[in-house]
Amino acid sequence: MQRMIGAVLVVASTGGAGFLYGAWLKEYVETLLYLRHVIYLLKGELEYSGAPLQEVFGRTAAHVKEPYRRWLKVMERRVAQRDGETFQKIWLHSIDNTLTELHLKKIHIRQLKELGDCLGQMDHASENREFALYLERLELEIEKERTQIAVKGRIGNCLGVLGGMFLVILLL
What average pLDDT does this structure show over 87-95? Predict the structure, then answer.
């Protein structure tokens, strides 16, 4: 009887791990969607207000949730201080220090960092084009992640259950 209960628990726990993997995939897409929302807010604020980047970061921070709010507040404060740092260096440093809890994939971090390469050095029209280019690439990445959710989620569920069955067979 104890073996049967143990077998059921092993299969249930490994199946649950597969289910959690699928849930994590969905959550990751939600993270990318919210990042897109934040970038759209930055782009819109820059485009319509024509304000300097420091003010754009401050105004946008009021409309977003954590950790994006903290990131934008850090950007606002550090751009105001500058202390001889380039905008690009401030952008990279703030992403590395405040957005790590999002656990973005390396390619998404790299693309976000590349956006900062061009900001703060051009006129507003060029900055808007850079935002548009980044948003287009982000849209493609979101679609790619969405298509992988179904496949990877199903594989995760199946591997979880099958892995549990394999463990039960080994242990029995």
Answer: 87
